[in-house]
Write a structure and sequence with these properties.
With about 290 residues, this protein is of the alpha/beta class. The protein contains 13 helices and five strands. The chain has a five-stranded parallel sheet, sandwiched between helices. It holds the Pfam family AAA_22.
């Protein structure tokens, strides 16, 4: 079934649970607000290194997109996603992100000199360079140390270069390695973005529904509770479940998504989840159920 049909069925202006990172839909939970504050803090204070981590699908890339909308004109920004490779490859990623052309076959020394000249030229023009590295857990210890060495360009009172690393929890483990103690010492702030709790999941779903013209009550309290159980509070998984649930409900002519609809799509095996221990619900689930009914 075409998802545009459920928009008409429920009166939505667009799909409320698209998987594409979109800052227009950003739900400012306490955790997301704090993570964003850490990112802003890194930029405003020109911290050499700032780190934000979180599980897959918790909204890290959406936060980056929101941050990009607020970059001041005196910041020259480079965004790097999924960078991999050995020594020298990182510099090519960095220069490419900053739209600096590199001659074919240039050696490491030439690339570093080109990068340093660019940073100094930006500084002379009243700007400073910021690099955001998304999916930074893909960088090895050697590459992270290479990043730290790049910040040695900073000298005196002014910070010419700052680096923001965003990645999965493995990034924190990587930074804690003994061989990266110098790197860790240069990190100004670290924040880990946790999955949503049950109440936040309820508010998140209602927020996205209202954003597209819905009432925020298109899902029953029982359905929302079951979505939390199945998703573990991971926004991306919540989006998948809600999107498909709306398809199922509209195709059946239902005005509201009930728990039977969620059970049906889960039973049909449309959502793939990593293997793990079953989620144990806490007392907050009971309080949520009472508040949402």
């Amino acid at each position: 079934m075409n998802t545009s049909l459920y928009n008409e069925h429920f009166g939505f202006s667009e799909r409320p649970f698209s998987l594409v990172p979109d800052p227009d839909f950003l739900f400012w939970s306490q955790a997301h607000a704090r993570a964003f504050s850490v990112l802003e803090y890194g930029l405003v204070t020109r911290a050499p290194l700032t780190v934000v981590t979180g599980e897959v699908g918790t909204g890290k890339t959406t936060l980056i997109q929101a941050l990009l909308r607020q970059i001041d004109e005196d910041v020259t920004l480079g965004l790097i996603s999924n960078a991999q490779g050995g020594r020298g490859d990182l510099l090519r990623w960095v220069l490419n992100a900053l739209d600096v052309a590199t001659p074919p076959g240039a050696d490491y020394v030439s690339l570093f000199q080109q990068f340093q000249n660019f940073v100094l030229d930006e500084y002379a023009a009243g700007r400073h360079v910021a690099l955001i590295v998304d999916e930074a857990q893909n960088l090895g210890a050697e590459t992270l140390e290479e990043l730290r060495m790049l910040t040695n360009i900073n000298s005196g009172k002014d910070e010419l270069l700052q680096i923001i690393l965003v990645g999965q929890p493995e990034l924190r483990d990587l930074i804690r390695r003994p061989e990266l103690r110098q790197f860790a010492q240069r990190v100004m702030a670290v924040y880990h973005l946790e999955p949503m709790d049950v109440v936040t999941t309820r508010d998140y779903i209602a927020h996205r529904l209202k954003h597209v013209g819905g009432t925020g009550k298109e899902f029953s309290a029982e359905a929302t509770r079951f979505i939390f159980e199945e998703s573990g509070g991971i926004p991306r998984v919540v989006n998948k479940l809600c999107d498909l649930a709306l398809v199922y409900a509209a195709s059946a002519g239902h005005a509201k998504v009930g728990i039977a609809t969620i059970r049906e799509l889960v039973r049909d095996g449309l959502i793939l989840k990593p293997l793990g221990d079953p989620l144990v619900l806490t007392e907050s689930l009971d309080s949520f159920g009472k508040a949402a009914e």
